[in-house]
Design a protein that fits this description.
This protein is mainly β and about 375 residues long. The N terminus is likely disordered. The longest helix is centred in the middle third of the chain and has 10 residues. The protein has three domains: about 160 residues, Glucose Oxidase, domain 1 (3-Layer(bba) Sandwich); about 70 residues, OB fold (Dihydrolipoamide Acetyltransferase, E2P), CATH 2.40.50; about 55 residues, SH3 type barrels, CATH 2.30.30. The two termini are about 25 Å apart. Helices cover about 10% and strands about 40% of the residues. It contains five helices and 28 strands.
Length: about 375
């Protein structure tokens, strides 16, 4: 019999995860293996080289490029401030003097008598890597970063936007079917991760921003709302770096889709608990899912056991990840072993999916993902 190994969307009450927190360039690691860290704690830092500003000195002074060194007031390696003179003519009458100034603060990196230009490297930009989750440092990668481990409740979403955040979970709807609108946003939710509902409205997002909430976890949202809060059409991209105050994670998909019952019940159990969340999403090679991580208090972390993906089986709960039926959840009712020709004229292995209302659909197995515990 042919098997299909399907990537899973995990919703787990108690699991162990590890997060690699690595700097973009080598730098300094600030914690030791075995130490306990909080989500906001800086575990490593480095400096990114500043941008280079090109100053066309010969044009500004009206000199020949071969003579540039004669007119320079600064040499390579010298620091300069924005507006400070770096080169100057020396006419017989000083009122005719021409001065070339630096447009930025930085260091003179290169003076060229070939191009007649001066390169000024702006000041380095500090980069700090935070732990992201409360947990234990189980590995230190020299000059690069750390691996943090935690035992936690873990929820993956299907799509998200926004940066890494941390805050207490606050469930704000009574059921997973309710629409999360502006009226359900409490005024005292600063630093909270608001959870619940089938759809988040633009008004609710604006109200959450004003109230200082750091995150929203909801069943779905309209694509139009996403474009409005971002100010542009997202298209096909890796998300997670958007400059928005409130990170949003959709657990089910686009449109009004009730949050899965067990996801909602788990969030209710976690109400008032501190969570880390990320909106980072990538749906192509190297799949990245948005996530909510809530450390389990008072339980020792155990070693992670690697495991292989399980094959699909009858009765498995799965989610459709492509149109038609995008975001819908159902159970596997049949797994025909033979290849079947689909609308694109290709021969693929399919499955039969039964939705909660009893309707059935036949879909390519590549169009679904397993919802794992």
């Amino acid at each position: 019999m042919a098997y299909a190994f399907t990537p899973g969307l995990r919703v787990a009450r108690n699991t162990v995860i590890r997060k690699r927190r690595l700097l973009p360039l080598k730098g300094e690691v600030l914690v030791e293996a075995g130490s306990h860290v909080t989500a906001e704690q800086v575990v490593a830092r480095t400096d990114l080289p500043g941008d280079v500003e090109t100053v066309n000195v010969i044009n500004k002074l009206g000199i020949d490029r071969e003579d540039i060194f004669e007119y320079m007031l600064k040499k390579e390696g010298d620091p300069v401030e924005a507006g400070e003179a770096i080169a100057q003519t020396r006419p017989f009458i000083k009122w005719f003097r021409t001065t070339c100034t630096s447009p930025v603060a930085g260091v003179v990196e290169k003076i060229s008598n070939v191009t007649g230009q001066v390169l000024i490297r702006q000041k380095p930009r500090p980069v700090e890597m935070r732990a992201y989750i409360d947990g234990k440092v189980v590995e230190v990668i020299e000059a690069e970063g750390v691996v943090v481990e935690t035992r936690c409740a873990f929820i993956q979403g299907i799509f998200g936007v926004g940066r890494e955040q941390a805050g207490e979970i606050l469930v704000v709807t009574a059921s997973p079917e309710e629409v999360l609108d502006a009226e359900k946003i409490p005024p005292d939710c600063k630093g909270k991760v608001l959870a619940g509902g089938s759809l988040v409205t633009r008004g609710a997002i604006d109200a959450a921003n004003r109230a200082g909430a750091v995150g929203i976890v909801v069943g779905g949202m309209h694509a139009k709302t996403l474009n409005e809060i971002l100010g542009y059409d997202l298209g096909v991209a890796i998300t997670g770096t958007e400059d928005i105050p409130t990170t949003i994670v959709c657990t089910e998909g686009f449109g009004q889709i009730s949050m899965a019952g067990r996801t909602f019940e788990l969030l209710k159990e976690l109400d008032g608990r501190r969570a880390s969340m990320s909106g980072a999403t990538q749906i192509r090679a190297g799949v990245i899912r948005p996530e909510i991580i809530v450390p389990v208090e008072g339980e020792a972390a155990e070693a992670i056991e690697d495991h292989e993906a399980s094959p699909l089986a009858l009765g498995d709960l799965i989610r459709v990840i492509r149109e038609p039926h995008f975001g819908h959840i159902g159970k596997v009712s049949a797994l025909p072993p033979e290849l079947t020709k689909v609308e694109s004229e290709t021969m693929v292995r399919i499955l039969e999916l039964e939705f909660p209302d009893g309707q059935k659909a036949k879909l390519p197995r590549a169009n679904v993902e397993l919802i794992e515990d």
